[in-house]
Fold this protein.
Amino acid sequence: MRSLNQRLGIGLALTLLLLALAQWWLVTATVKEFAGNYVHSRLQHDADSLLGALQPAEDGSLELNPSRINGVYDMPFSGHYYRVIAGDKEIISRSFWDFDLKFPVQADGDAYVVGPEGQQLLVVMGEFEKSGKHIKIGVAEDMTPLLHELDEFQYSYALTSLLVIFLVLIVQTMLVRGGLKPLRQVESDISRLERGEIDRLQEDVPTEIKPVVVEFNRLLGVMRSRLDRSRTAVGNLAHALKTPLTVLRRLADTGEMNAAPEVRDELVKQSDSIRQIVDRQLKRARMAGAAAQGWQFLPEVELPPLVDMMQKIYSERGLKIDLYFPEHFVFNGDREDMMELFGNLIDNACKWARGRVRLTIENQSGLVLTVEDDGPGCAPEYREQLSVRGMRVDESTTGHGLGLSIVRDIVEYYGGTLTFSQSTELGGFAVSVTLPGYANSVIQ
């Protein structure tokens, strides 16, 4: 769909063009009619002068008095001509020279005929009575210069009209851009909202779009409220499960369970597993509750403490974790989601690494993350199983098989991709994550 600016511009351009065409036709037609009426009036005046110049001759016929005739009618091909028929006598102007031109036979009317040298002649005809004789007088004038000037006027008027339309469109474009400026402000506010700089849109907007902005803020508040209630519910559920789990753990330690050691061990194992999951959900709920509004993840702020913590956890193995990311890199993702994503990937790499883990972040129209280790790696036939919740390829390490499946859940939520491969440099396992979205290298 075209933008409002384009739609308004095209609509106004078409309207102005149609208006200019109608005005051009009306003005030029009026000018032509006015010029024609003027020439007709002048020719009618000349016809009256010719009628007055007719005088009786000695033989009783009528002849023109040369002293009363305008000298232009004596100049060859001057563009001014007359023909007088008085009874059986015909008198023509010398301006015809040797050109034979018959005027139209109709009387009391105007007509266009082609005269000497291709001249466009306007002919005015009239019938009169004088000295008992019936007289026909035709007077003509070359309209070629006037028609040429009218054509130039039409051309100039058309160019002027197009220039005016162009200037009006420029002014209209400026006005529309100024009028649509509040919409661009709303767009900017949405971007700032996405980056976490503000928590709602400004409602100081024109009346036409204010209901949309107000409704957007209302829906935003509803979604935040639902998210808070959901996180609170998860925390409450986790708290509620802790008491029954404590009871089950104590039951497993009672003397009655010594008679069934296999059952006791399995009960302890499953109780501990559920407790770890509950503790994780409680921690996530507490972190989510303390998170700032909006989405903005800054690796240079969040990742160094996470890497230090992981190195302390695996300090007995002397792991080295290398961290690479663009300076001042910012990604518009939920901080807690990102921390969980990075935390699970780094923790998984640390479990299998022999001495080195490397985390690399790139800005490629989004976030591209690669976590590699120098561990034993993973055979290609097992890689697809790794993201299945609870699936573990090797049971020799501690854990519950939830890490990579949680990573896949986060990646799918952001519409990204998750791939497993062999590290070409470290030789171990490599996990690559691509998250599309807004990212840049300048902290807002």
